[in-house]
């Protein structure tokens, strides 16, 4: 499944124009969901997870190379997976520890693991953002897990309301991207959510009554 | 305002993604870098590339006059004009 993409851009009008000019849509998605959360907190470590990252930027650079054109310095300087968290750190003026992960279909759980280690080290709260950009048409046949661009920001604090457990196991793939399934579980009455990826079975369970 | 100046203003807006800006917002004598428009060193590289592509001229990044040519739209237009007729 893949929905039509009219290239709508999330609003980041809270940033001055000069500061937002280099933000890609993926970066704008992160800023749009995470900024309101960060505004309520002092300095905040960030774990950013994206399986595919900025495929449109990669393709633009590769296309220039293939045509023997010089590379755009802006595109090139932002072509690494952690460029967005660098922009975030600069524009927030926050030098907390920040990590960018490119994991597979269970990137959300891998990011939770990373965030838990930061909480375990004493961070009062950790911001976790998982976001995926729609792949350019050229890559579409190879990327089948991003039906539309999406971003989810979670503010994590130490506690035991939720438990996440990993076991070996296989199961069906859900129709929706997993982060959105988790969001639905968090917003609804659901007490348990299972997520399978390859031979890994992740179980999210709500502890409190 | 000459056509070349207008073209350069629009090139600056497009190449550097200055959303919400129009050509008339950039005065011909406004400093492009630092105080003024507020562009930075990555913009300088990007703009240099865009100028070379659009006008088919070569810019030597190390030449001592290059900084002067990129001071504002007026100086940039004069530079492009001189290179095209060189």
From TrEMBL, chain B:
Record-linked Gene3D superfamilies: ACP-like
Domain of life: Bacteria
Domain (Carrier): residue spans on this chain: 2-84
Any Pfam family the entry gives: PP-binding
InterPro entries in alphabetical order: ACP-like_sf (IPR036736), PP-bd_ACP (IPR009081)
Entry protein name: Acyl carrier protein
């Amino acid at each position: 499944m893949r929905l039509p993409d009219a290239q709508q851009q999330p609003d980041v009008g809270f940033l001055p124009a000069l500061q937002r000019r280099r933000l890609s849509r993926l970066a704008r998605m992160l800023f749009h969901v995470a900024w309101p959360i960060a505004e309520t907190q002092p300095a905040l470590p960030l774990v950013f997870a994206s399986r595919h990252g900025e495929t449109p930027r990669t393709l633009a650079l590769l296309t220039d190379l293939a045509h023997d054109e010089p590379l755009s310095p802006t595109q090139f300087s932002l072509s690494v997976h952690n460029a967005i968290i660098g922009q975030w750190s600069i524009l927030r003026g926050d030098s907390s520890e920040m990590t960018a992960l490119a994991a597979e279909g269970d990137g959300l759980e891998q990011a939770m693991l990373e965030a838990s280690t930061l909480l375990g080290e004493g961070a009062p709260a950790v911001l976790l953002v998982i976001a995926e950009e729609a792949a350019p048409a050229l890559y579409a046949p190879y990327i089948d897990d991003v039906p539309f661009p999406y971003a989810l920001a979670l503010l994590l604090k130490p506690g035991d309301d939720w438990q996440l457990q990993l076991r070996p196991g296989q199961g069906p793939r859900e129709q929706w991207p997993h982060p959105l399934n988790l969001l639905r579980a968090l917003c609804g009455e659901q007490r348990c959510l299972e997520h399978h990826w390859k031979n890994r079975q992740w179980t999210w369970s709500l502890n409190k009554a | 305002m000459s056509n070349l100046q207008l073209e350069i203003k629009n090139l600056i807006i497009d190449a550097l993604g200055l959303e919400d800006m129009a050509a008339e917002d950039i005065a011909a004598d406004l400093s492009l870098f630092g105080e003024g428009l507020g562009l930075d060193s990555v913009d300088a590289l990007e703009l240099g590339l865009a100028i070379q592509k659009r006008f088919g001229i070569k810019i030597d990044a190390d030449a001592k006059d290059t900084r002067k040519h990129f001071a504002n739209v007026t100086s940039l237009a004069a530079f492009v004009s001189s290179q095209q007729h060189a």
